[in-house]
Design brief:
heterodimer, B: four-stranded antiparallel β-sheet, globular
């Protein structure tokens, strides 16, 4: 038996409907893989961004704000640490390098980070892509994604990116008098730091006699020598005024929230997919009901029950399978588009990849569809030729 | 002979709302293999039901001494699956409205019954389908039959009916929806095919020309099969 010739004719007859049904299934089936791929890529992108930031020391307050501010350069309001904290941290030993971080200024919507050369080059582990390190408070090193060239001058504005206010001429009302000359460029890291302008922290101290107090910073980024050092430092640096947090630990907490969101969205997406599969199944019954005459004819020409059942099963499950496969592709495309948007908004490089997990999702949905397709197949073949003739 | 038709005590009723209605009542009929027989009768006299019975699509009412046989093949005792297979192999069906699949080509339509039995259609059947179409004057064998004229469609349907060299050809008003010249063509070819393939041919028709080519004529009157009368078929 070979039902494909009959199916070819039926497909030519109603390819529009079949295509529409497959597209509905594809759309409904694209959500779960898209959510799953997004979650994985956000997780990986965020974790990768935090690689350089093992231990963060900040003023007492929200650990999440500390990580979001230092690692992701989000405009979180961070309290200043007491003067001398950097020296105090360094005095604990077991530290490969420690660098101060202070924020509060920007060039256009690129945040300016006041720090030291250790953080810019990870203490020499990540050399600049071009140019050289800043040597005085008039010089800046830019991230790979900042649209400036070496030799350009910039005038920073006060306030975080979210607070930018332009006057009628398009000039920033918070512009400082100070200028920086770009002398170097960091390599692309795929982190929000690609959008950063790094300047010596001393430059910020000079610009803000009233604000960022001389010798003070918001965060000290610490690279411990060993894991044991890391735990020891965290305990030692958690005192009355300061908190020390592992960025990885905070991320794990954030990921927990992300995972809950992911679970809820996955549940909704699965619901949508189940509804679409059910609709396809109902369409399968309608398709059978519409083809009673054709099936009576096939029986009259000598086709068996089995031929009808296999034909209907192939027809319905074929559409379901095609819909689920298309959904996987559509989901990948949606996840790629979303990740490109997130990347442009945050600077976190997201790599979306299709894994076994998503394939399994699509396969199991298609599998459910193929099993469900037995119902209209049974519906089609349970009638005798005589019954078919009478209802035709 | 292999394709002699034996009918005895065949009654057939259908459910009509609450009551059952007797559609056919044939105490006895014997047709030797190779006979060309024409059947006529008013609408509702049971013509289509008779054809459905003869090809095993429906079965007669259960009763003592009831017999419906083609040669040795007893349709009443044959299980449904075997009956389907038997019908596919031994019976060619031709309908008034052709019953082609309009989105399949002429060749595909003729070969469709072969796909019930074969995954890959044997070259010999392919060749036979092409020969039949050529013989019946169909040149556009790869064109969907939806664009064919009615006469062409009926000739494609005839090629499909005789693909497996059936021993029985059943035709239900094969010329009724054709114009005069196409009706004449189809009549000639139907009779030629029945002769050359050695089939028993049963035709339900009201066309005098077609009846004129038959060996025997029957009249169905309220489910009873009577000998045909020549004057019934004369134009009034």
């Amino acid at each position: 038996m070979n039902p494909f010739l009959f199916l070819r004719g039926e497909f030519r007859r109603s390819w529009g409907g079949a295509l529409a049904l497959a597209l509905v299934l594809a759309f409904a089936g694209s959500l779960s893989p898209a959510v799953s791929m997004m979650e994985r890529s956000i997780r990986a992108g965020m974790a990768q961004s935090a690689d350089a930031f093992d231990l963060l020391v900040g003023a007492k307050g929200s650990a999440v704000d500390l990580v979001l501010g230092a690692v992701y350069l989000r405009p979180e309001p961070l309290e200043l640490l007491p003067a001398g904290t950097l020296e105090n941290v360094k005095a604990h030993g077991g530290i490969r390098w420690a660098a101060p971080l202070a924020f509060g200024d920007r060039w256009r919507d690129y945040p300016i980070a006041g720090t030291s050369s250790e953080l810019v080059t990870l203490d020499g582990k990540r050399p600049l892509a071009s140019g050289r390190m800043f040597l005085n408070t008039e010089e800046a090193v830019i991230g790979a994604g900042v649209p400036l060239n070496i030799g350009d001058s910039i005038t920073p504005s006060h306030g975080s990116v979210a607070e930018a206010v332009l006057d009628e001429d398009g000039k920033d009302v918070h512009a400082h008098a100070h200028t920086f000359r770009v002398v170097g460029r960091m390599p692309a890291t795929g982190t929000p730091w690609d959008r950063a302008v790094a300047v010596p922290i001393e430059a910020l101290w000079n610009m803000h006699e009233d604000g960022v107090g001389t010798g003070r910073c918001s965060v000290v980024v610490v690279k411990p020598v060993t894991v044991a050092d890391a735990y020891r430092l965290r305990t030692a640096l958690n005192d009355v005024d300061t908190q020390a947090v592992f960025s990885g630990e905070v991320l794990t907490r954030l990921f927990g929230t992300l995972e809950q969101m992911h679970d809820v969205m996955l549940l909704l997406a699965s619901g949508a997919q189940a509804a679409a599969l059910a609709a396809a199944l109902v369409s399968g019954f309608f398709a059978v009901a519409m083809r009673v005459k054709a099936m009576a004819l096939l029986r009259a020409l000598g086709a068996s029950h089995g031929f009808l059942a296999v034909s209907v099963w192939l027809m319905v499950s074929g559409i379901m399978f095609a819909g689920c496969a298309l959904g996987l592709g559509l989901g990948s495309m949606m996840a790629s588009a979303a990740s490109m948007w997130i990347q442009s908004e945050t600077g976190v490089a997201l790599t979306v990849s299709l894994s076994f997990e998503e394939c399994l999702m699509a396969l199991s949905a298609a599998g459910c569809g193929c099993v469900a397709a037995f119902l209209p197949a049974w519906f089609a073949c349970r009638k005798t030729a005589g019954e078919l003739l009478r209802s035709a | 002979m292999e394709n002699d038709l034996h009918l005895r005590n065949v009654r057939y009723s259908v459910q009509d709302g609450e009551s059952t209605r007797r559609v056919l009542d044939i105490p006895e009929l014997f047709l030797p293999g190779g006979t060309l027989a024409g059947i006529y009768g008013d609408s509702g006299s049971g013509k289509t039901s008779l054809l459905n019975l003869l090809c095993g699509l429906v079965l007669p009412d259960v009763c003592q001494g009831c017999e419906l046989r083609w040669g040795k093949d007893d349709l009443i005792t044959m299980p449904e699956g075997r009956r389907d297979a038997w019908r596919g192999r031994h019976v060619g069906m031709i309908f008034q409205d052709f019953q082609l699949f309009p989105h399949l080509s002429a060749l595909e339509n003729v070969l469709l019954p072969a796909t019930f039995h074969h995954f890959s259609i044997p070259a010999e059947l392919h060749g036979r389908a092409r020969d039949l179409l050529r013989r019946l004057g169909i040149r556009r064998i790869d064109v969907p039959t939806g664009v064919f004229s009615r006469g062409e469609q009926q000739r494609v349907a005839m090629a499909r009916a005789v693909l497996f060299r059936p021993s029985v050809l059943l035709a239900d008003e094969p010329t009724a929806s054709l114009d005069r010249s196409n009706a004449q063509l189809v009549t000639d070819e139907l009779v030629d095919l029945a002769h050359s393939e050695g089939c028993t041919l049963l035709v339900v028709t009201h066309e005098q020309v077609l009846h004129g080519r038959m060996d025997r004529r029957f009249r169905l009157e309220r489910g009873r099969l009577l000998s045909g009368l020549d004057e019934d078929l004369k134009p009034k």
